[in-house]
Amino acid sequence: MQSEFDFIKRIRDQAAKASAPDLVLGIGDDAAILREREGRETLVTVDLLVEEIDFKLEYAPPRLLGHKALAVSLSDIAAMGGAPAFSLLTLGIPKQFQPSNLKSGVFWEEFFAGYFALAEEHSVSLIGGDLSSTPDRLTIDSVVIGHCRAGGAIRRGGAKVGDAIYLTGPVGASATGLKLLLGGARVSESEEGLAQSALRAHLKPTPRAAFGRRIGERGLAHSMIDVSDGLAQDLARICEESAVAAIVDYDSVPVANEVGLISKGPEVAFDFAVGGGEDFELLLAASGDDEAELFEIAALCGLGLSRIGELVPADQTRPRLLLRRGGEVKPLSIRGFDHFQI
Amino acid sequence: MQSEFDFIKRIRDQAAKASAPDLVLGIGDDAAILREREGRETLVTVDLLVEEIDFKLEYAPPRLLGHKALAVSLSDIAAMGGAPAFSLLTLGIPKQFQPSNLKSGVFWEEFFAGYFALAEEHSVSLIGGDLSSTPDRLTIDSVVIGHCRAGGAIRRGGAKVGDAIYLTGPVGASATGLKLLLGGARVSESEEGLAQSALRAHLKPTPRAAFGRRIGERGLAHSMIDVSDGLAQDLARICEESAVAAIVDYDSVPVANEVGLISKGPEVAFDFAVGGGEDFELLLAASGDDEAELFEIAALCGLGLSRIGELVPADQTRPRLLLRRGGEVKPLSIRGFDHFQI
Q: Chain B, 40-79: which have a CB under 8 Å from a chain A CB?
């Protein structure tokens, strides 16, 4: 059976036959890289959100949906070390949400309030898009264009043996939130507590934009990715693209407190946190020599950075992802979000 | 009832509040315009194609669908007077077309054969995209990025009173093809004739890329748009954005021969041709002084250019679109494709 990964690889191989003078990097990273102007690179990313697959309207308030539609693409630009500038938004709209339906007015006002609030926060201008009817499901395609200095884009493939692995925050809260939502929990602005925090982590993720941009400006990471498909799977992508292997320290991985709401015992929680997607924390490989500066930038951005492991030579006799616990090193199973396995 | 037009206008007004130093033109034209490099402008466009709305798999062979997915966006870049360079492709894929389904292999091979053949023809590099499952319908979102010289992008809003109106080819063939397809006709590579030509006009449209690019290079049009939503509606857009009115000469509008297959009588055929969408001819407003050069470029590109009317002052006492026939001037009704009225 072909996975999403294989499918993309085939398209990527075919696309790679074309070359263009201004193309720096095509398919296969968080964003494509173009050389549109001397001294800087242009980054382009696109993310598709489909009703019933990526969200359900029964639990996703439209304002948060508008926020998330932009947030997921801002996260990709951050993962490249860039700053976002422009966005395009394509909507496939089913009958009940079409402008001719009076009730749809409130839905779109809320949706765009969420979208534009985040756009304003990040100085992003919505410059285009497209609209079409759909037979039944709301479909959102979100494009963001950003910039970084020339040569500054941080790719998945730049990690080196000996690099330390860092993570900008705890993982597992978003997957916990999704599980709670599917179980009937609903987000409420007036409520506080761990459950609400999990729901918000899923419905209203915060892209690590300032951290990503600063890391790009200072050139402090060899490789970076956003944890959208799960820590294990996204770390595996860095390893694959950089031709290295990774050892993750069990005790160093920050498992979100929210995970405790649904997982009994630390080992189950660890597995859930490492396999769960959509946390949108940044995962980076960097030289341990730069650690002080990395922690300083994280603190400036209000993030709690964790050093969770190190990169080692790839070795065909063992898997790419390893887990070190109490001096023992075992394979770390790569589970995560395959967009075709749900 | 709010139309697609009103809906877009509201989003556009909200988006216009944000301004960015490198943004030349945002929502409201065939493509957005960015100033990414001195001496040139960057054009960005996106088009959504949804199964059952924009195409049906029972009549659209996957190779032609791949072609059309790219063609519609190339047409937008041509309508801005630009040359395409890069593309991104987002696919929302239902179960039966997912890579894990063996039968889907042939579908995607054909789809990408069509896509990449057109990309190669226009020197376009596929640089990114996204994939997701969808519950049931195939969804295709096509982004194309192109370039033109600085100040060279041809907007909808630049037309002037006194300009002549030109069209790069006959209209109505695509709408005829769609009607035949819905009636059960199918495209066949081995067959010739008018019906097959109509089917191909709909399923495998040819973007007027070379013509659009040359017009942009030479600065020969004040306004240009591709006829994707119907001649009347797209001409109305030029008039609206340029604050002018248009007189169309009944006898000058080239109605495609294919229309005769389904319309009895020339007047019915005219209405059908002027209201039918997806011809992807270019419609432009230009000075009559440049007519010789316009016809020369069209001939170089293998296109039969027609002068179909002229622009006159907007006047609140009459509609924006007028039809002149035998010395008499009457309103030309604006029918066309509203993406929410189907």
A: 42, 44-54
Indicate which of B48, B93, B102, B143 best probes the interface with A, i.e. most A CBs within 10 Å of its own CB: B48
Contacts of A19 in chain B (CB under 8 A): 125
How close, in Å, is residue A75 to chain B by CA atoms? 14
Q: A30-66 pLDDT, tens per residue?
A: 999 999 888 999 999 999 999 999 999 999 999 999 9
Q: In B, which residues are within 8 Å of A45 by CB distance?
A: 128
Check if A117 contacts B (Cβ < 8 Å). no
Give the 3-state DSSP-derived string for chain B, with helices as H, strands as E and coil as C. CCCHHHHHHHHHHHHCCCCCCCEEECCCCCCEEEEEECCEEEEEEEEEEEECCCECCCCCCHHHHHHHHHHHHHHHHHHCCCEEEEEEEEEEECHHHCCCCCCHHHHHHHHHHHHHHHHHHCCCEEEEEEEEECCCCCEEEEEEEEEEECCCCCCHHHCCCCCEEEECCCECHHHHHHHHHHCCCCCCCCCCCHHHHHHHHHHCCCCCHHHHHHHHHHCCCCEEEECCCCHHHHHHHHHHHHCEEEEEEHHHCCECHHHHHCCCCHHHHHHHHHHCCCCCCEEEEECHHHHHHHHHHHHHCCCCCEEEEEEEECCCCCCCEEEEECCEEEECCCCCCCCCCC
What is the location of CATH 3.30.1330.10 in chain A? 17-149
Q: Which of A69, A68, A67 is nearest to A113 (CA)?
A: A67
User: In chain B, which residues fall in CATH 3.30.1330.10?
Assistant: 16-149
Query: Where does chain B hold its CATH 3.90.650.10 domain(s)?
Result: 156-331
Q: How far is A293 from chain B (nearest CA, A)?
A: 31
CATH topology of domain A17-149: 60s Ribosomal Protein L30; Chain: A; (3.30.1330)
CA distance A128 to A107: 20
B230-244 pLDDT per residue, tens? 999 999 999 999 999
Helical axes A266-275 vs A231-242, angle rounded to 10°: 50
Q: Is 60 exceeded by the pLDDT of residue A174?
A: yes
Nearest to B129 by CA among A5, A132, A127, A31: A31
Give which of A148, A182, A207 is closest to A59, Cα–Cα.
Answer: A182
| Segment B293-310, tens digit of pLDDT | 999 999 999 999 999 999
Contact map slice: A 321-340 vs B, CB within 8 A: 339-340
pTM of the model: 0.93
Assess contact for B134 and A137: CB atoms under 8 A. Answer: yes
B86, B128, B131: residue with CB nearest A45: B128
Q: Are strands A223-226 and A282-286 parallel, antiparallel or unpaired?
A: antiparallel
A236: tokens are 């595996």
Which residues in chain B are closer than 8 Å to A82, comparing Cβ atoms?
none
Instruction: Please tell me the class of the A156-331 domain.
Output: alpha beta
Q: Which of the listed CATH numbers 3.30.1330.40, 1.10.10.10, 3.30.1330.10, 3.40.50.620 matches domain B16-149?
A: 3.30.1330.10
> Using one digit for the tens of pLDDT, what is the confidence trace for B181-217?
999 999 998 999 999 999 999 999 999 999 999 999 9
**Rounded Cα–Cα distance for residues B314 and B320 (Å):** 7
